[in-house]
Design a protein that fits this description.
The complex is a heterodimer. Chain A is mainly alpha-helical. Chain A has one domain: ABC transporter involved in vitamin B12 uptake, BtuC, CATH 1.10.3470. Chain A has 14 helices and four strands. In chain A, the strands form two sheets. Chain A has a two-stranded antiparallel sheet. In chain A, a hairpin with a 2-residue loop joins β2 and β3. In chain A, α4 runs parallel beside α6, α5 packs antiparallel against α10 and α12 packs antiparallel against α13. The two termini of chain A are about 15 Å apart. Chain B folds into two domains: about 220 residues, Response regulator (Rossmann fold, 3-Layer(aba) Sandwich), CATH 3.40.50; about 160 residues, 3-Layer(aba) Sandwich (Rossmann fold), CATH 3.40.50.2300. Chain B has 15 helices and 13 strands. In chain B, the strands form four sheets. A seven-stranded mixed beta sheet of chain B has the order 6-5-7-8-9-12-13, sandwiched between helices. A two-stranded parallel ribbon of chain B has the order 1-2. A two-stranded parallel ribbon of chain B has the order 3-4. In chain B, α3 runs parallel beside α4. The chains are: A mainly alpha, B alpha/beta. Chains A and B meet through α3, β4, α12 and α13 of A and α1, β2, α3, α4 and α15 of B.
Chain lengths: ~350, ~450
């Protein structure tokens, strides 16, 4: 009733080809942005902002990165955490060598380092596919993590082996380190996320995205219609690693504040892959759904018993959270193997017919 | 259909409420305990959690809290995961904790700069950043009774004692097997320094956290190198695995010395052959103390403890008790200094800084002979207490050495340099602005 395009006329091809062709979708997006920009920081407490939303944004960005590679270009990668680590360590080195330069510049710049490393480890993707590629990227994961532990130069020879983030300011406001307020960090994260999601959306809906999807669906056919596989696959690795590098830098600088190499272990790679699969392969909104289901939901579940006045042991809550989250993942995958994004699409189609489906 | 919708709306509302507002109790002292009863380190973490929890419960049950104020104890499960630990920190922060115990070096590190901003002292008991022992640089961080550097120097002194003096270390080959994370890597600079000073050779056998239960490669190297002594800095599953592997290559257990973290279960699981395995310790490894008897009477018998009965009074459980004793004494001290009954994080920081537990005080709290006296000051947040070596006799740990003082003349300059380097790397590091209470 409310959600339908009847009466909306397109006067140009551009309007007809828009990503959000229906007015309701555009206003929905505006409402979501308004909630993220105004309502949540105004009403949420520090816990919601620092422990739920900031990590959610960081992981959503990393998931978008992996989705570009796995969902759009069809290349499975298990090295995501390693590439995130490259971003984090690059940002740490850059900001400790040139502390006077704006930290947001370094966060973006560190993406290029991850990008270069990603391209390097993406080279085998020209010859191998599927599970075999996953194993090859697994090598990247282990090698990079080994570097973070072994190469002292990367962490400035700290005796603790960890990287620590000092205070950096942006226009006089501290954005990293202990004195940065949660809201400042929140807005910086949100800004980066919005900009990069917008760029990703333009990439995947344009010529490059179609090239990736052609390669994903059948690489021989793609080659026959004139797509250069080398070019397309390495570009996917480059863009994807760039996103993950930026997300990694954000993770250490805007979320954790200090990190040991363990922060970038294989578990994180798997989590990101699960977020992509459960959210929906080849869908940007799926990246958000996936990150929310796997990261934010368990945190909210953990606070639920206390909110309901149940006195459960902390370990019991932890186990319950694992079980409930696991159950939900299985439920959603059975309900819709193509991921939450597909469920969302079905819901929207149903809503268009509602209340008179034929 | 309708009912489920309402139910899910109610659940969502409850979720929202839990995020947006949190209740706060006014007349209790809130002590959050970051514990890990799950995950790869749970084997060690459960003992710690039970020990810490039971001692604070004892104070609530027997004495009605500290200074007449009940302690609100809340456990938060970290799973030894830094991200979850920070989540716990954010979750407890609005409730006004008087201090936090991260129980993981990885969680301690990001909390170090935040402590001063949030006015919540961090008590990282014998773990965390060694340099945080310097109270003039880290006014909010406390790591009594020993740093990992003290521990390493004590192990070396013990080895030297076995060999007949520090000069006899020359030409010896020492193996160092460690968790390849901040914790295990921390003693490396000291080890390098001492190797140069005393002329011994160090062989390093790092074990990655993901590889804790698969150490055959490391021990193959040990068999090749045949070090005269093995030193271990491990935690969780690393320790029982290392002991088993050492047995498999027939490494002499008498010469295998660990920092203070292995529990009885870690050693017992290796079987009979583990006899002679040694660890450092600074407190009792048995339950024959009035305080443990009281825990049995007031906590365990009332069913308020999660701990199995036979684990009460084991070494790592006792470590948890010792940790909670420090918390309680710091709170009591803070009450004494400020005259307030309900103290804040700022007060407890002062309480920790002027903590002075002498033998008489330890006796009064039922811990005579449980641990040695300890005194902290504004510049020294550690105490650098002597420790002793205990040996596994097949059934329990037995003290086999005199108290060993750390090599302070070697450790102190390193602590000083490292604290300075930390402040420089994290510039602008705030200069200490907190006042100093004279001895209370």
């Amino acid at each position: 009733m409310l959600y339908r395009e009847a009466g909306e006329f397109k006067a140009s091809y551009a309007a007809d080809q828009a990503i959000f062709p229906i007015r309701q979708e555009r206003s929905g997006l505006a409402i979501i942005l308004a909630i993220a920009l105004i309502v949540l920081p105004a009403l949420g407490n520090d816990f919601l902002i620092t422990s739920v939303l900031v990590p959610f944004y960081v992981l959503a960005l990393a998931t978008i990165g992996l989705n570009i590679l796995t969902g759009y270009a069809g290349l499975v990668s298990l090295g995501s955490a390693g590439f995130m680590g490259v971003g984090a360590y690059a940002c740490y080195k850059l900001s400790s060598l040139f502390p006077e330069i704006n930290i947001v510049v370094w966060i973006f710049a560190s993406g290029f380092f991850a990008c270069a490393v990603g391209v390097l480890f993406g080279l085998p993707s020209l010859r191998i596919k599927g599970f075999y590629l996953a194993v090859a990227t697994l090598a990247a994961q282990f090698f990079l993590q080994w570097c973070f532990v072994r190469v002292g130069w990367l962490y400035n020879y700290n005796p603790s082996g960890a990287i620590e983030v000092p205070v950096h300011t942006l226009f006089g406001w501290p954005v990293t380190g202990a004195s940065a307020t949660p809201r400042t960090r929140y807005y910086v994260c949100l800004f980066i996320l919005i900009v990069m999601t917008w760029v990703a959306s333009n990439l995947v809906h344009g010529r490059i995205g179609r090239m990736w999807m052609a390669v994903r669906d059948m690489d021989i056919a793609a080659e026959l219609i004139g797509i250069r596989l080398l070019h397309a696959k390495l570009l996917a690795f480059a863009v994807s690693s760039f996103y993950m590098g930026v997300a990694g830098a954000m993770m250490v600088f805007l979320w954790l504040g200090a990190a040991e190499p363990e922060a970038f272990n294989i578990n994180l790679s798997f989590l990101l892959l699960f977020m992509v699969i459960i959210g929906g392969l080849g869908s940007l909104i799926g990246a958000f759904f996936g990150a929310a289901l796997i990261h934010a939901l368990p945190i909210l579940l953990r606070t639920l018993p206390a909110a309901l006045g149940l006195d459960l042991g902390s370990a019991t809550i932890e186990h319950l959270t694992f079980m409930v989250t696991g159950g939900l993942i299985i439920f959603f995958l059975i309900a819709e193997p193509l991921g939450l994004a597909r469920l969302w699409q079905i819901a929207k189609q149903k809503l268009r017919m509602w209340p008179f489906p034929y | 259909m309708r009912r489920t919708t309402w139910r899910s709306i109610a659940a969502a509302a409850a979720l929202g409420a839990s995020c947006l507002g949190m209740a706060q109790a006014a007349d209790t002292i809130f002590v959050p305990l970051f514990t890990y009863r799950t995950g790869p380190f749970a084997g060690s973490g459960i003992f710690i959690a039970d020990g810490m929890h039971d001692y604070l419960t004892l104070l609530n049950e027997r004495d009605g809290g500290i200074g007449g104020v009940k302690i609100a104890v809340e456990e938060c499960e970290t799973g030894y995961d830094t991200k979850k630990g920070l989540e716990c920190y954010e979750a407890v922060k609005p409730k006004g904790p008087v201090l936090v115990n991260p129980w993981s070096t990885g969680i301690t590190l990001p909390l170090i700069p935040r402590a001063a901003v949030d006015k919540i002292p961090v008590l990282s008991m014998a773990y965390g950043l060694s340099a945080s022992a310097r109270g003039n640089v880290f006014p909010w961080i406390f790591n009594p009774p020993d740093t990992y550097w003290d521990g390493m120097s004590q192990i070396l002194k013990y080895i030297a004692g076995q060999e007949g003096g520090l000069d006899k270390l020359k030409g010896k080959k020492l193996g160092y097997i460690y968790l390849d994370a901040g914790f295990g890597k921390e003693p490396l600079p000291l080890l390098d320094q001492l190797a140069k000073d005393y002329g011994f050779e160090v062989k390093l056998y790092p074990v990655a956290a993901s590889e804790m239960q698969n150490q055959s490669a490391q021990w193959l190297n040990v068999r090749r190198d045949r070090p005269d002594y093995m030193i271990m800095y491990g935690w969780g599953a690393l320790q029982p695995t290392a002991i088993k592997e050492a047995l498999r290559i027939n490494y002499p257990m008498q010469k295998f010395i660990s920092i203070w973290w292995p529990s009885e279960d870690d050693v017992r699981s290796a079987g009979e052959g583990a006899k002679g395995f040694k660890t450092l310790n600074w407190h009792a490894a048995s339950g024959d103390f009035p305080v443990i008897a009281d825990i049995r009477k007031y906590v365990v018998d009332k069913g308020l403890s999660q701990s199995p009965k036979d684990k009460i009074g084991t070494v790592i459980y006792n470590r948890g008790v010792y940790n909670s004793m420090l918390i309680a004494e710091a709170i009591r001290n803070a009450q004494k200094i400020t005259g307030k009954a309900v103290v804040t994080g700022e007060d407890v920081r002062r309480g920790l800084e002027s903590l002075d537990l002498d033998a008489a005080r330890l006796k009064a709290i039922g811990m005579e002979g449980f641990a040695g006296p300890i005194k902290l000051s504004c510049t020294d947040h550690n105490g650098h207490r002597p420790t002793f070596v205990q040996e596994w006799d097949g059934n329990k740990f037995v003290k086999v050495s005199e108290l060993i003082e750390p090599l302070s003349e070697k450790v102190e300059p390193l602590l000083e340099a490292d604290a300075k380097a930390y402040a420089e790397k994290n510039a602008p590091w705030p200069a200490r602005s907190e006042g100093c209470d004279a001895k209370s």
